[in-house]
Design goal:
Porin, 8-stranded antiparallel barrel, 1 helix
Length: 201
């Protein structure tokens, strides 16, 4: 009987820390805010050899994640800009210049993740993106400017690593495709590789 009581006491002592650990808040749960910077490449997805352009991506993101066991489900919104641009001289007439600049990009979507350790997770994401481009045509003193908005979708994958209970780093690749601009069908591909640093509240 005494042996049975000692065994029960030992089991309770061992189980208590594990139970307490299970009751701790999930590390990937809560509101988060982050800054991002990375590489941006824009190209014609029609298959024609029409060239591409690249630049630096920068922006910010807000999101909320919920963790259940090792599974993580989250929603997120982002606004970003880019230095990506394309310039062509003597396009329609000798001495003219046409410039196409990447404007702001709005994104809203969701992500699904898996905690591979107490401080690291991998995830996949997808959602809607609205991309603004700005054009300018110059011929002598005449200047014509215009803006257009492109609707598309985005998919991606990444890794997030916690530096502390509040701060984290992440690396991400994502692909976006835009198939319509102001009612006209197009095919524009966008590839981005970025890093981010954030805070979870």
């Amino acid at each position: 009987m005494r042996k049975l009581a000692l065994a029960a006491l030992f089991a309770a002592t061992v189980a208590t820390p594990a139970f307490a650990q299970d009751q701790e808040p999930a590390p990937f749960t809560g509101l988060r805010a982050e800054g991002i910077v990375g590489y941006d490449r824009l190209s014609d997805g029609s298959g024609q050899d029409s060239g591409s352009s690249d630049g630096v991506l920068y922006g910010g993101q807000l999101g909320y994640d919920f963790q259940a066991g090792r599974a993580i489900l989250g929603i997120e919104g982002e606004i970003s800009g880019s230095t990506t641009d394309t310039r062509a001289d003597s396009l329609l007439a000798t001495g003219d210049r046409f410039t196409l600049d990447a404007g702001r990009d709005l994104y809203a979507g969701a992500r699904v993740g898996l905690a591979v350790s107490p401080t690291a997770m991998i995830y996949a994401k997808g959602g809607y993106t609205n991309f603004q481009i700005e054009s300018e045509y110059r011929l002598g003193t005449a200047v014509a400017r215009d803006k257009a908005e492109l609707d598309g979708f985005r998919v991606g994958a990444g890794v997030e690593y916690q530096l502390s209970p509040k701060a984290y780093l992440k690396g991400e690749y994502r692909y976006s495709n835009y198939s319509e601009v102001d009612g006209y069908d197009i095919d524009l591909d966008r590839h981005q590789v970025l890093g981010g640093i954030g805070v979870r509240f």
